[in-house]
Amino acid sequence: MKDEILVNLENPRQLEQLYRSDTATFRQAFQALYPELKSTPGATFWHERLNYPSPESTLSSGRDLLFVLVAAAIAGTLAKLPVLFSIDEEYFYTRNIGFLVFPFLAAYFVRKNKLSGQQIGLIGGAMLLALVYINVLPRYPQSDTLLLACGYLQVLLWGLVGYAFVGPKPTSADRRLGYLRYNGDLVVMGAILLLAGGLLTAVTIGLFSLIGYQIEEFYAQYVVVFGLAAAPLVGTYLTQAIPQVVHKVSPVIARLFSPLVLVTLVVYLVAILFSGKDPYNDREFLLLFNAVLVGVMALIFFSVAEGTQSNLHRAEVLVLFLLSVVTVLVNGVALSAILFRVSAWGFTPNRAAVLGSNILILINLLLVTAQLLRVLRRQVPLSEVGKPISAFLPIYLGWAAVVAFLFPLLFGFK
Q: Any residues with CB less than 8 A from the CB of 130 and at least 6 apart, and which?
């Protein structure tokens, strides 16, 4: 490494590539060479870069960690309210599960971005309104509109966290794509934390059982509950405090899974033709079909958001384009199945909600597919693909608000 540094000292681009290829070895080799190179301007720059202490970042991270620990303790305590006050667990968690996570994530980004009092009031007021609304809805047996309101309300709460994330410029397309990248990073980090937590749980229960203590129930009721409440907050803290680690993993996962999902989806569509099942007459199959659609769409959007931060190869853009085309076909099948069921049996709250969602997804995917085609033709840069994605986020939130707040009234709470 020392010889490579000496040869490329006057070549900033090559030196940067060496640094990124093996940061630890580069740092060690450069520090050893610096005494004989310190009169060189380029060496002085790299010395300052490698030795900059960043004290404010360290202190900020420490304060953020303290906030995360306190917030996690509060979230875990709130999760135990049904036990503490004998509240029906199904009633409590169905309506309030999102309020154990999203308000604390929003508070984290409110602190981090130093939002104005007006913005804080908007976020806090909207969450309070949502909390009161969902808990005063009448509890009818088998109420589809109640379940829809509970589900789509999570999307609205997620959107409020996004508003806190983007900060003072809520219309910034780059910040909105940054929020999608954060969600992808959080999924990756959350999976790692849950895997580590599961391993710790197995080891702890096993060790105590060896000495005659059966702690499974206690551990599940308290340690696991608090751990699950803390996972999104701790994952968020790690994605923000050590982004250089997470940002190296997420693009690799996006690039690895995109071609795998493309192949799987094509094989799945072919298999449907021979399976004897179809989404037109099988309600459960249609629900699964739509779940696959949403998952693949999320992967496309996440891959595009990650790709705007790094240079995707032409083959990778081609994979995303083909995946978008196949997903449009899947959406078309799902949409036609929903329209068939509506024409045959009429509108229900579920059919209306899914129909509206699928129409929005189809339009959004068509715009993204068109932009990816333009990227392949070298007519626009990849960053242009992010524009229809970021532009549609408020539209999705608007539809979620309609379903959550208006559907119960429009369909008589049925």
A: 153, 156, 157, 404
Domain identity same for 275 and 201: no
Residue numbers of the domain that contains 191: 64-241
Q: How many domains does the chain have?
A: 3
DSSP annotation of 99 reads G
Indicate the burial class of 345 (C-beta count within 10 angstroms; 0-12, 13-18, 19 or more): exposed
Whether residue 186 is contained in a domain is answered as yes
Whether residues 121 and 237 share a domain: the answer is yes
- 311 and 385 both lie in a single domain: yes
Instruction: Write the single-letter amino acid at 142.
Output: Q
Burial annotation 34-71 (CB, 10 A radius, 16+ → b, else e) = beebeeeeebeebbeeeeeeeeeeeeeeeebeebbeeb
Place of tokens 């309600």: 283
Position 59 scores a pLDDT of 45
- The gap between the terminal CA atoms of the chain, to the nearest Å, is 70
On whether residue 246 sits in a domain, the answer given is no
User: Is 248 inside any structural domain?
Assistant: no
- In single-letter form, the type of residue at position 74 comes to I
> Of 184, 217, 241, which residue constitutes the final position of a domain?
241
The pTM (predicted TM-score) of the whole model is: 0.83
Q: How many Å apart are CA 16 and CA 71, to the nearest integer?
A: 39
CA distance 297 to 129: 30
Q: What is the distance between the alpha carbons of residues 258 and 293, in angstroms, rounded to a whole number?
A: 14
Average pLDDT of each block of 10 consecutive residues along the chain (414 residues)?
A: 71 75 73 76 75 52 84 93 89 94 95 90 96 91 88 96 85 83 89 92 92 90 90 91 72 82 87 79 80 86 75 84 92 90 90 93 94 91 86 94 94 82
Q: By C-alpha distance, which of 151, 95, 145, 142 is closest to 347?
A: 145
141 within domain boundaries: yes
So what's the pLDDT on residue 372? 93
What does the pLDDT read at residue 308? 66
* Token digits of residue 134: 């969902």
Residues 341/351, Cβ–Cβ less than 8 Å: yes
Residues 167 and 292 in one domain: no
Q: Is 202 exposed, middle or buried (0-12, 13-18, 19+ CB in 10 A)?
A: exposed
